[in-house]
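During the reporting period the student researcher (J.K.) took over the structure-prediction task from the postdoctoral fellow and processed the backlog of single-chain submissions. One of the processed entries is reproduced below for the supervisory committee.
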Amino acid sequence: MGANVTDLKNYERKLAKLSKDMKDQYFEQCVKELAARLLAKVIKRTPVGVYPPESGKLGGTLRRGWTGTVDQSGADFAAQLDVKHIGKTYTVEIVNPVEYASYVEYGHRTPNHDGWVEGQFFLTISEQEIQKIAPKVLAERLDKMMEEALK
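J.K. obtained the following structure tokens:
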């Protein structure tokens, strides 16, 4: 059984093309894809307040808080997020700036302090779901990147 040295050298050249920039780009794309998936889940799961018409209140402020608008999808918003690279860690910060978001997420006392309103854990549950699927998503992206790089 023999090996073709020319094929091995070609393969080596293709692997060398996987520069640091290409790796950084891959990691940033992965982070943004996971962020988009998280936003898609958490936006759907975020509760919308229902108010009587005479109150003049309109529900959905908390849900709109994830992207700042009704029209923008989670994927579009995630594509604009700033990915930070520190050491071997790539992070992106997803924040809902609505002041009462943490109270709805984790629960809170009632206004008269006599009771407790249970948290809805819309972000916590969504994060747990993303953590479960992340290895598969990352493996698929890696396969695609390697396939394109080694063409």
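The committee noted the following: The CA atoms of residues 106 and 130 lie 19 Å apart.
J.K. will present the remaining backlog at the next meeting.
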